[in-house]
Amino acid sequence: MRVEPTPYKRVTGLGSAHHGVGHYIKQRVTAIAMLVLIPLFLFQFLASLTTGYDGVMAWLGSPFGLAVTFLNVSVMVVHMRLGFQTVIEDYIGGMARKIALLLNGFFALALWLIALYALIKISFGG
């Protein structure tokens, strides 16, 4: 059952944007994914750390190590962006909100691209 906003809320732009459920589900799915990926990453990474730098680089260069690390970074970046988005929407208003949300998206994308570049470079032995 969908409740329509009152005329005052419609004019002032107050009321539900009808995006809360999707945002909530995305945050929970990324949190559950991190519950699986972080221990898997740490277990594998710490096991490869015992063989030193060459062992870590060999593990990160392997398809499994690359996939686990890439998935871990990707899920963490999405979860971070969603969390910051919630904080920005709750505590910042007006034009500053729009700018902060835009910067949040660009920062998350930049962070993900930097991690992707580093992983590609490591996987090709560079």
Provide an overview of this structure.
83% of the residues lie in helices and 0% in strands. The chain is built from five helices and no strands. The longest helix has 30 residues. The mean pLDDT is 89.
Outline the fold blueprint.
Blueprint: H1 7-12, H2 20-49, H3 53-61, H4 63-91, H5 94-123
In CATH, the architecture is Up-down Bundle
N-to-C order of helices and strands:
HHHHH
Report the top-level CATH class: Mainly Alpha
**What does the largest sheet look like?**
none
Terminal Cα span: 56 Å
CA-atom Rg in angstroms = 20 Å
Count of separate DSSP helical elements: 5
Summarize this entry quickly.
The chain is mainly alpha-helical and 126 residues long. The chain has helices at residues 7-12, 20-49, 53-61, 63-91, 94-123.
Q: What labels describe this entry?
A:
126 residues; elongated; 0% strand; mainly alpha; 3 helical TM bundles of succinate and fumarate reductases; single chain
